[in-house]
Design a protein that fits this description.
The protein has about 290 residues and is an all-alpha fold. Helix content is about 65%, strand content about 0%. It has helices at about 1-5, 10-15, 30-50, 55-60, 65-80, 80-95, 105-125, 130-140, 145-155, 165-210, 215-220, 265-285. Helix 6 (about 80-95) runs antiparallel to helix 7. The longest helix is centred in the middle third of the chain and has 47 residues, at about 165-210. The radius of gyration is 52 Å and the shape is rod-shaped.
């Protein structure tokens, strides 16, 4: 509100709140215009104040006759009396001294919280030096910034550094630390993914290795043909109705035929014997 009134050259009217001097006898045109401007300034300033406030605040200043009364009413509404201002200042100073950086906060977020308190103190009319804010930030930073603070103290005087420069210095350090943490998390995630894939593959192999056979799952009784487990009777290799395709005998299948395991020499010897007998018969006939 103060800045708005200063832009229209009306702030002095609010402070003085005095009626302009009356015109002298036989005034000039310039004096008449100047006198008219001085008289209308009060009404312009009152119009600015009434138009800039909300309807609730307007109802509190609408009964004020002079500009000074309206401005004092606004100050009392938003700043309180002198006693209230002192109590507010005391609470804000105590809150400022107890401020500490939270674990999950960045330096910029912490500085914003500090500046919100400092601006409230400055609005109540108390001077607050920026060097005091810098000292507060440096004294309450966590231990992870200790190395950076020590290097800054060795390179330059921290009493002459601005708050913006200080925050940007620590903000760059935070960005580097965050990028390293992201790289570490990515590498750890890749290692865990490899371990999980190898574990799943091992579990899959173990599962298929130890998986029970379908016949063993279906048949848990002894086969009456071979007295063994793991297969039904109709699929037994030694059932009586089975016919071997190798030796043409009943009681077993070709897969377990004992004659099948004999060398091929027996078959060739039998063939040679048949040929020899045939030759002897032909000689006899001759």
């Amino acid at each position: 509100m103060k800045t708005y009134l200063q832009a229209f050259n009306l702030w002095e009217v609010v402070n003085t709140d005095t009626e302009p001097a009356p015109l002298r006898a036989n005034p000039t045109v310039a004096q008449i215009r100047q006198h008219a401007d001085e008289r209308t300034k009060r009404h312009k300033a009152m119009s600015c104040i009434q138009n800039c406030v909300s309807d609730v605040i307007f109802t509190k200043i609408m009964a004020c006759k002079t500009l000074k009364q309206a401005w004092d009413k606004l100050k009392e509404e938003f700043q309180g009396t002198e006693r209230t201002k002192k109590q507010q200042l005391l609470n804000l100073r105590r809150y400022f001294e107890n401020l500490k950086m939270r674990k999950e906060e960045t330096v910029k977020q912490y500085a914003d919280r500090i500046m919100a308190v400092v601006n409230s103190i400055r609005l109540l009319g108390e001077h607050f030096d920026e060097a005091r804010i810098v000292e507060k930030v440096l004294s309450t930073l966590p231990e992870r910034y200790e190395a950076k603070i020590s290097s800054s103290e060795g390179s330059r005087d921290l009493a002459s550094i601005s708050l913006t420069e200080l925050i940007n210095t620590f903000y760059a350090q935070e960005q580097r630390r965050a990028s390293r943490a992201e790289d570490h998390q990515e590498s750890a995630f890749q290692v865990k993914a490899k371990e999980a894939s190898s574990t799943n593959a091992h579990k899959g192999k173990k599962f298929w290795k130890n998986r029970p056979k379908p016949d063993a799952a279906r048949s848990s009784e002894l086969c009456r043909h071979c007295n063994r487990l793991g297969h039904p009777e109709e699929r037994c290799w030694f059932r009586p109705d089975a016919i071997c395709q190798h030796c043409k005998k009943k009681g077993h299948v070709e897969r377990v035929c004992k004659n099948k395991s004999r060398p091929k020499q027996v078959h060739s010897q039998q063939k040679n014997e048949v040929v020899r007998v045939a030759e002897d018969n032909s000689d006899h006939e001759k």
